[in-house]
């Protein structure tokens, strides 16, 4: 097996780890800004988010290139993990640890993203309720009731002429 695989996979995993670390940092800062309602700060994150997206897309392209190259050489090409597993033990062991770290970081990124998403959803629900209170003056009319007949209901079929 070509010794270059060790180097290529190490470089790929290093780049991926760097992007994941930067993404975790950005998501943490974003959560703090969401909690503080820092609109200007959130807007300023847009450019940094786009750079991270570009870097992640670069990692994805590099992953695909590595797996296609491995397939062309008859090596396992289902995943980076399977490709690294085909390396000699001396090269495989450090790569396996890096792959596990990248996998754990990906799971942590999912958790942070979900946390931020939930925070935004709760904020939207709260704002929606506030708008409803403002629109109705705080006096909500019951949707259903036997004592009050609402003249605004859909009475096209029920209206007596």
Structural summary, described in words:
By secondary structure, the chain is an all-alpha fold. It has helices at residues 4-36, 39-72, 80-85, 89-136.
Q: What is the 3D shape?
A: elongated
Structural class: mainly alpha
Major β-sheet, in short?
none
Number of helices: 4
N/C terminus separation: 89 Å
Question: Roughly how much helix do the residues carry, as a percent range?
Answer: over 70%
Mean pLDDT figure: 87
Low-confidence stretches: none
Give the oligomer, counting copies of the same chain as homo and different chains as hetero: single chain
Number of domains: 1
Radius of gyration: 27 Å
Count of extended strands: 0
Give a short overview.
The protein is mainly alpha-helical and 161 residues long.
Features:
single chain, 161 residues, mainly alpha, elongated
Write the layout of secondary structure elements.
Layout: H1 4-36, H2 39-72, H3 80-85, H4 89-136
Helix pairs in contact: 1-2, 1-4
